[in-house]
Amino acid sequence: MSTQQQEQPETQEAPKDPEMKGQQSPQQERLDKKEQGLAEAESVDESDVEGESVHLKVFRYDPEVSGKQEPRFDEFHVPFEKGMTVLDALIFARDEFDSSLTFRHSCRQAICGSDAFFINGSQQLGCKTQISDLQQPVRVEPLPHQEVVKDLVVDMDHFYDQMHAVEPYFQQEDLPEGDLEEQRQPRENREKVKMSTRCIWCGACMSSCNIAAGDNQYLGPAAINKAYKFAMDEREDEEIKEHRLRILEQEHGVWRCQTQFSCTEVCPKDIPLTEHIQELKREAVKKNLKFW
Amino acid sequence: MYEHDVIVVGAGGAGLRAAVAANEAGADVAMVTKLHPVRSHTGAAEGGINAALREGDDWELHAYDTMKGSDYLGDAPAVETLAQDAPEETITLEHWGLPFSREDDGRVSQRPFGGLSFPRTTYAGAETGHHLLHTMYEQVVKRGIQVYDEWYVMNLATSDEPDPNDRTCHGVVGYDVQSGQIEGFKANDGVILATGGPGQAFDHTTNAVSCTGDGHAMAYRAGVPVEDMEFIQFHPTTLPSTGVLLSEGVRGEGGILYNNEGERFMFEHGYANNDGELASRDVVARAELTEVSEGRGVEDEYVHLDMRHLGEERIIDRLENILHLAEDFEGADGLVEPMPVKPGQHYAMGGIETDENGETCVSGLYAAGECACVSVHGANRLGGNALPELIVFGKRAGYHAAGGDLGDAEIETGYTDAVEEEDDTEFPVQPGSAGLEPIGDDVAADGSGQVADAEGVLERAVETESERVDRLMNKDDGVQHAEIRSKLQKAMTDYVNVFRTEEGIKQALEIIRECREEYRDVYVADPSKTFNTDLQMTYETRNLIDVAETIALGALVRNEFRGAHWRQENQTRDDENWLKHTLVSWNAGKPSIWYRPVILEGESKEYEPKVRSY
Question: Which of B330, B345, B360 is the last residue of a domain?
């Protein structure tokens, strides 16, 4: 069933700079794109999907197994089922054809953030991407701009380091003595930070960012978004906010962002990352914090 | 070899809370986890955290609701500890920054949940678990607690005295998934298992692929009894094609269940004349399957959950995540159509037997969270009671393991001569590994008591696992884990599901035995030492076999209907014979079943078993 023809990988290009879009929200754009993709898939070849098989081309690499030390693509033909996601197809290929096919995954519902891959040229979660929305063959590659450990597994250490670099925790030292009571937070303030708290640390944004690709020290969209939550949350006092802005306005911080919106485009949680970064730039200007 | 005071295995809500508590008590604590902490399955919890925070509510009401929900199989000291400590723990999370939903006055929001007499489910949208997980991880980062992430714990290093009550756990054997290195982790003060649920024993489950009951199986084979394993919660609202969960919050906010005739069956067919959709989860799950089996299901498979009447504004404000899940995983738009739902495996009420301080009968070994059975949930867990369990008992286990004083526990652990033993149930096949030729040194604790000192115990455990890895990797053919796992999952979903019969459960036990025999021929095809998930999943499958067997054994012996456990042969609760916990001991490969009476005597009152109607 599975044919494992080897093929040289094509050069992994960073996604093209998206044009600056007008008023449409990224979520709406993604929905539109999805519908469009659906229509295309239907018009392309319905029979190729229904009752037939899914043609996967999966990136393979293992530093210590002969035959896999040179990166290659393996092809798998997996029986299609309605509702099948890219993750479902990969699991089938692994469990039925090749148990060495390696990828991270856990929750299957877009909350653990383990399975961001480069699918048909864009960063997406495998579990959240319907096969029926994709052109075949479906090309699955590891996230670009990160070191490949094996097959679709990339080294996430640098990503985690950047997340930790923004001091992502409330700074208050002690909890109040005696009877605990919650701090009051206005609904509006909770609303303001809400989108930023949805981040699942999947790394899709960082991988899509040209700036991060060229500047290894750039904090990157995910870490800046994490910092945004703390900078905007009114439960922390002003003094700490200034400390937070100083971390963000440094040379490899918010000013690096060139508002290409690629992070916002790929975010599976529809977080307005670029807007958050812009807002932090404005805050830094207001406080007259500039690294230069 | 690595060495720390306290080793926490698993980094979901319970593990993270335990690590913070141990750190605050002054211990050098490290977390060893097969996933990076933020990938843990706590993140998928949606509904909220039950805590009596408001005027008109108090911990005693929370305890009462929990005891009733448990169908009188929760132990009062555990239930009362949960209810008493939940408010402080919830507010602590708020101070650590958890972005709870808010009321107009700025206080944290609470909402109604099934089986609660007061709307005490404190929530952050329909993604409370995600926020709890990330907030707790932030605290671990803040404290600089060492995390060995993507290290799979293969086994415990436990001494080998004949009586499990005399054994000591000295650490764990870890496998670095990225490099294939096997290392001992010595724990000077204690090992805390916080490995989550065993949902992967079933094939339609809300649980992550990583929920493989590793902690259950390792503790069980080391001699710790597992308790009330037959009590598996099937959540009434999971998406039919994937098992993805739609929070009880949908019904809490007013969502309605309909059958294919458009009837609001919870009322119209009399399943819960007072509480309707907000009856306890087991009641709603059985009602749905009854509707389907009587021909009133949609496409003979599921029912409809409708929330359109709540209006877009309220849905977006409180349940936005539900819209995304229904759209992404079932293609249903909850704003314009009802969403298809059916029951799916969701939670294990039972687990590793512990007392209210998190301690097991093996010295130095603790468990907290879903993998543990204190027992808070008894025969059925109420929605919104899992997250407070993580933080309340995670904290207690961490503090106690680090040497903190919590006083003597009221709940007993470990087998003693005083307890009642099962002797007349006929098993269709021999459970456990008895009758099978051992392969290598395959028995975790065989009672020989040969090695005494901590280093020796750890070295021996590392050696055993290294040999096992070599054996699995060097074998060139045989059967692969995926085949055995899917056979096991299918058997459990076919025969040990919402409706159970003696014949079906026996069938399951026979298939589990087949799986156990086939597993002796298992091999790992991937030759690589780098990120070998084939090897890791082969380990996990072994754990699933042991855990599934304890679930089926418990289900077979408990011939009554209590909470989530329904038996065709006896469809009533039998308080005369069954106000007791089921315990299964590995017993060096020859599992034995025994019982311990439930504790219904609370701090100031006795919980009198009443008819459980909603």
Answer: B345
Q: How confident is the model at residue B447 (pLDDT cuts 50, 70, 90)?
A: low
Q: Are B88 and A187 an interchain contact pair (Cβ–Cβ within 8 Å)?
A: no
> What's the token pair of residue A200?
């699942």
Of the candidates A78, A144, A79, A89, the one whose C-alpha atom is nearest the C-alpha of residue A116 is: A144
Buried b / exposed e across A53-87, counting CB within 10 Å, b at 16+?
ebbbbbbbbbeebeebeebbbbbbbbebeebbbbb
Q: What is the pTM of this model?
A: 0.93
CA-based nearest distance B328→chain A, Å: 6
Chain B interface disruption, residue of A105, A106, A244, most B CBs within 10 A: A106
Tell me whether A175 touches chain B (CB under 8 Å). yes
Residue B46 in tokens: 């949606």
Which run of H or E residues covers position B596?
strand B592-597
Does the active-site annotation cover B281? yes
Substitution target from B95, B181, B299, B476 for chain A, most A beta carbons within 10 A: B95
As given in the structure block, the two tokens for residue B423 are 């002797």
- Closest CB to B534 among A100, A182, A233: A100
Is residue B10 pLDDT above 50, yes or no?
yes
Q: Residue A108 and residue B104: Cβ atoms within 8 Å?
A: no
Q: Same structural domain for residues B353 and B288?
A: no
Q: Decide if B417 is inside a domain.
A: no
Q: What is the DSSP letter of B384?
A: T
Question: Which of B329, B481, B483, B535 to mutate to probe the A interface, most A CBs <10 Å?
Answer: B329
Q: For chain B, state the CA radius of gyration.
A: 23
Return the CATH number at B337: 3.90.700.10
Portion 136-155 of A in contact with B at CB < 8 A? 149-151, 153
Q: Length of chain B in residues, anyone? A: 614
| Boundary residue ending a domain (B345, B363, B383) | B345
Whether B510 is covered by a domain: the verdict is yes
Is the ipTM value over 0.90, yes or no? yes
SS (H, E, C) chain A: CCCCCCCCCCCCCCCCCCCCCCCCCHHHHHHHHHHHHHHHHHHHHHHHHCCCEEEEEEEECCCCCCCCCCCEEEEEEEECCCCCEHHHHHHHHHHHCCCCCCCCCCCCCCCCCCCEEEECCEEEEHHHCEHHHCCCCEEEECCCCCCEEECCEECCHHHHHHHHHCCCCCCCCCCCCCCCCCCCCCHHHHHHHHHHHHCCCCCHHHHHCHHHHHCCCCCHHHHHHHHHHHHHCCCCCHHHHHHHHHHHCCCCCHHHCCCCCHHHHHCCCCCCHHHHHHHHHHHHHHCCCCCC
Domains of chain A, first to last = 26-153 (3.10.20.30), 157-170+188-286 (1.10.1060.10)
Domain that holds residue B334: 233-345
Contact A182 B101 (CB under 8 A): no
B39, B95, B241 member nearest A183 (Cβ): B95
Out of B281, B513, B558, B612, pick the active-site residue. B281
Of B104, B138, B208, the CB nearest to A106: B208
Task: Tell me, yes or no, whether B566 and B538 share the same domain.
Answer: yes
Phi, psi of B346, deg, nearest 5: -135, -40
Per-residue tens of pLDDT for chain A, all 292 residues: 444 444 554 444 433 333 333 445 545 554 455 455 444 444 444 444 456 899 999 999 999 998 899 999 999 999 998 889 999 999 999 999 999 999 999 999 999 999 999 999 999 999 999 999 999 999 999 999 999 999 999 999 999 999 999 999 999 877 777 768 899 999 999 999 999 999 999 999 999 999 999 999 999 999 999 999 999 999 998 889 999 999 999 889 999 999 999 999 999 999 999 999 999 999 988 887 666 6
Same domain, B95 and B10: yes
